[in-house]
Amino acid sequence: MIAEVIINRSAKKLNRTFDYNVPKEFEELILIGSKVLVPFGRTKKLEEAYVVGIKEKSNYEVKDISRVKNDLTDKQIELAKWMAKRYFCNISDCIKLMTAPGSNREKNKIQEKTINCVYLKKDDETIGFEIDTGAIKSDKQKKVIKFIQDNPGCTIPEIELFTGYTRGIVKTLEKNDYIEIIQKKIERNPLINKDVKQTDKLKLTEEQRLAYDKIENAIKKEKYEQFLLYGVTGSGKTEVYLQLIEKALKNNKTAVVLVPEISLTPQMIDRFVARFGKDAIAVLHSKLSIGERFDEWNRIKEERAKIVIGARSAIFAPIKNIGIIIIDEEHDSSYKSEMSPRYNAKEIAKKIAKEEHIPLVLGSATPDLNTYYKANNGNITKLTLTKRANASNLPTVKVIDLKQELANGNRTMLSVNLHTAIERNIKAKKQTILFLNRRGYSTFIMCRDCGYVVQCPNCNISLTYHSFQNKLKCHYCGHEEKVATVCPECHSKKIRYFGTGTQKLENEIRKMFPKATTIRMDVDTVNKKNSHEVILNKFKNDGIDILIGTQMVVKGHHFPNVTLVGVISADSSLNIDDYRANERTFQILTQVAGRAGREKLEGKVIIQTYNPDNFSIECARKQDYDLFYETEIALRKQLKYPPFCDIIVIGFNSLTEDEIKNTSNFVYEYLIQHLNKVNFKVFKPLPSPIDKIQNRFRWRIIVKGIMTDEANVVLNNCLQNVVELNLKSTRVSIDVNPNNMM
Ligand code: ADP
Ligand code: ZN
Ligand code: ZN
Predict the structure, then answer these.
(1) What is the pTM of this model?
(2) How far apart are the CA of 694 and the centre of ligand 3, in A?
(3) Given 11, 53, 99, 191, which is the most exposed site by the fewest CB atoms within 10 A?
C-alpha cells in the first residue's frame, strides 16, 4: 500500500503529493486525513505530513512512513483540497486551519495543564478510629487530614496556605498510605467566570414565526437551503437563531454560529450562555489565550460542546453532526480572509451546508449587495423582519452639512445641532455615543505651505501620528520616527497633523462639557484581554455620559439608556479608493444608528458630513436599505462590478523592480493567451496604490470577469508556471474579490 502525502510546510514547491510506502503494521491505521511522520530530503529530522490519497503502486522508489497519528477526517482533507484550488494556496495551509490551535511545540507545552489533587484514601470512620486509638499522633498530621477531609481534591499549595504546614507532612501522609495524590486535567474555559441568569425562549412575533418555520422546515427535511434573514437592528434575529439552535439540539445535532470578530462581545455571548448554559457552548476567537483555544477545540472535538460560536475560522472547528450554520452580520468584511489561504467563510459554510444537507442562515440589517442580489433572484430564500421586536421605534436621523457649519464660522468638531443635543442628553441623564471612523490622535503630518506629507521610507505610505508617544508610526512595517517640527522640503514651521482622532475628540468634548464623564474605546484602549468588556461595562453600569469610539462601538451592543448617537464625520469611508465605498458607508451609518433608542426611549441620530447629497448618506438617513440597494445595484451593473462580475487581483511583490516587471508581464501574456477574451478583461500590470511595503515592490494585475471552473484552472496553471520560473524574490498571489484593493 502506498500513501500520497502532503508535506506540512508552506513552500510553494511542496504543494504536491509525495509517495511513501505504508509498512504492514500501519495499514489498518492509515486513512485519508492521517497525520504521519516521514523521512524527507537529506536531513535526519522527520517531517510532518498528511495523507491525502491511497493507492496500490507507486512509479517511484519510495521510503517508509515512520509514524502515524490520526487527526483529520477525509471530509476535511477533501475540503482542504477544494480550498487550495479555489483560493490558489497550498493544501497544507488549509489543513492548518482545521487542526488544533498552536504549533506542535506549543501544544506539547500547553496540552498537559494538570494539577495535583489530594484525596483521603481511607474512609472517615477508619481515620476517626485511628486518630482515637492514637495511630495518628502528630497534631500536624491530624490537622492536615482534617483539612483534606473538609476539602477533598484540594491542592498542596492550598494545604500549605490554610494549615500552615509544609508539603513534607503531605508526603509523609502519602507514604503512610493515608492519602493519595491524583493528577487532574484542568480546563481553561473562557466562560468559566460567567454568571448569567438563564432565559427562556420568547414568544415569537408573527414575522419571526414565519421566518422560523421556513428554516425549521429545512432542518426537519434535512435539506440544504440558503436563507437570508433580513431585519433591521433589534428586529429579533438573534432570538430566531436561538430557537433554531434549540431545535437542532433537540434533533441531536449541533450548531455553528459565526459572528464578526469585533462583535464577539461578552454581551453577545451572554445571550447564548443564558439560553443554553456555558457547558454547551464553545467560543473561538483571537482574544483567547492559546491554551483556552486549545481546550475549546478539544471540547468540540470530544462532542462536549454542541454549539460553536466564533469568528471566521470557527467554520473549521472539528464539530460533528452539524444541524445548522448561522452567519450573523453576514455583510461584514471580516468573513473573507485577506491572508493566504484567502478564503471566504461564507463560501466554506455553503459548501459544508450542502454536503451535510442542512440550512445556512445569513443574517443582516444591511445585507451584502451580492447576497441581496441573490435573494432577489431566487438563489437564496429571503425572510424579512420589518419591525423591531420589542416595539421600540427606529431612531430619527438628521444629517448636518459641515460645509454650512464652516461657512457659519464653526471650526469645532461638533455642529451646533450635535452640541445642543449632547447638552440636552447630559441634562436628561441619558447616554450618548460619538462615533469616529478613525484611530489614533490624527492621521498624518502635512506641511501647510508646500503640501509635503511625512511618509514611511520603506512603504511609500504616510506615517500616522500617535500623540501618546509623540511619534510617527507606519502601520504596515512598524517604522517609527520623531515628529518633525520643520518641513524637510521647504523648511516651513507650519507642519502639523491633519485629520481628527478619538483622542482629540475626547479632549475637545472634555473642554466643551467639563461636567460630563467620558470614556474612549478604540484600538489604543482595547488591547488587553478583557478591556473591551471592561470599557463597555463601565459605560453601562457607571452611567458614563459619553462613549467615544471607532468601529468597535458600532456593532452588536445593546445599551438601553443610549438615546443619542453622533457621527462626527461620515465621509472617511466615502473617500476610499474602492468600488464598495458607498456600501461600506451605508452599512456603517445604519449600524451606528441602530445603537440609539433600543428600548422604550426615543432615539436620535445626528450624522455630520461634507457630502449631505451623497445617496448612501441620504439612504442611511431614511434608513431605507431597499432604496440604497436599487441605486447601488444599478451603478454596479452599469460599471460591471460585483455581483455582475468578479474582480480578480493578481498581486506581485519583490525585492527587485526588474524581476517584478518581468514576472507580471509573464503572467499578463499568459492570461491574455489562455483566458477567454469574450468573458475576461485583463488589465496591464501596474504598481499597486501602495507600491512598496517593507522595501518590497508591489505590482498588480486586475482581471474582470465571472470566475468559472475553467478560469480557475487557467489561473492555477499560471501560478504553476510561475513556480517553475525559479524566481529569486518575487511572490505571486491571487485573490478573488478581495476586501482591500490597496
Ligand atoms: P437583532 O438580533 O435583530 O438585533 P435581537 O434578537 O437582539 O434583534 O432583539 C432585540 C430585542 O428584542 C432584544 O431585547 C430581544 O430580547 C427582544 N426580542 C426579540 N424577540 C422578541 C419577541 N419575540 N418578543 C419580545 N421581545 C423580543
Ligand atoms: Zn513644506
Ligand atoms: Zn513602513
Answers:
(1) 0.79
(2) 6
(3) 11
Where does the pLDDT of residue 114 fall: very low under 50, low under 70, confident under 90, or very high at 90 and above?
A: low
Spacing, Cα 118 to ligand 1 middle (Å)? 48
CA of 312 to the centre of ligand 3 (A): 28
Residue 234 CB less than 6 A away from ligand 1: yes
- Mean pLDDT in the chain? 85
Structure confidence at residue 190 as a pLDDT band (50, 70, 90)? low
Q: How far is the CA of 6 from the centre of ligand 3 (A)?
A: 35
| 271 or 101: which leads in pLDDT | 271
Which residue pairs, CB below 8 angstroms and at least 24 apart, start in 509-516? 509/422, 509/434, 509/546, 509/548, 512/412, 512/414, 512/419, 513/422, 513/423, 513/426, 513/545, 513/546, 515/426, 516/422, 516/426, 516/545, 516/546
Residue 265: name the closest of 336, 194, 198 by CA. Answer: 194
C-alpha 117 – ligand 3 centre gap (Å): 52
Neighbours of 407 (CB within 10 A): 9
For residue 235 and ligand 1, the question of a CB distance below 6 A is answered with yes
- Distance from the alpha carbon of residue 476 to the mean position of ligand 3, in angstroms: 5
Specify the 3-state DSSP secondary structure of 153: coil
Closest ligand 1 atom, residue 204 Cα: 23
Name the one residue in this structure whose C-alpha cell is 537529506.
42
Amino acid in position 607? I
Give CA–CA dist 551/437, Å, rounded: 6
Lookup: cell for 720: 504553476
Indicate if ligand 1 lies below 6 Å from the C-beta of 238: yes
Contacts of 734 (CB under 8 A, 6+ apart): 88, 342, 648, 649, 650, 651, 715, 719
Q: For residue 647, how many other CB atoms are within 10 A of its CB? A: 18
Does any ligand 1 atom lie closer than 6 A to the CB of residue 389? yes
Q: What is the Cα Rg of the chain in Å?
A: 30
| Angle (CA) 739 741 742, round 5° | 125
Pocket test of ligand 1: the residue of 197, 208, 267, 390 to mutate, having most ligand atoms within 8 Å of its CB, is 390
Domains of the chain (ranges, CATH numbers): 2-96 (3.40.1440.60), 122-177 (no CATH), 210-385 (3.40.50.300), 396-439+501-637 (3.40.50.300), 442-498 (no CATH), 646-736 (3.30.70.600)
The atom number, within ligand 1, closest to the CA of 208 reads 23
Q: Which ligand is nearest to the CA of 447?
A: 2
Residue nearest to atom 4 of ligand 1 (CA): 234
* 390 within ligand 1 shell (Cβ under 6 A): yes
pLDDT digits (tens, 9 = 90+) for 251-303: 999 999 999 877 777 778 888 999 999 889 999 987 777 777 888 888 998 89
Q: Whose CA is nearest to atom 20 of ligand 1?
A: 236
With a 6 A CB cut-off, is 614 part of the ligand 1 pocket?
no
pLDDT digits (tens, 9 = 90+) for 531-552: 667 787 788 888 899 998 877 7
> Is the pLDDT confidence value at 593 over 70?
yes
What percent of the chain shows pLDDT beyond 70? 90
**pLDDT (0 to 100) of residue 267:** 76
C-alpha dihedral over 385, 388, 390, 396, to 10 degrees? 180
Give the residue, 157 or 228, on which the prediction is more confident.
228
pLDDT of residue 79: 94
Ligand at shortest distance from the CA of 476: 3
Number of the ligand 1 atom closest to the C-alpha atom of 235: 3
Kindly state the average pLDDT of the residues 94-103.
77
Question: In the structure, what pLDDT confidence band is assigned to residue 556 with cuts at 50, 70 and 90?
Answer: low
- For residue 112, is pLDDT > 60? no
Lowest-confidence region among 409-423, 507-521, 577-591: 577-591
Residue minimizing CA distance to atom 5 of ligand 1: 236
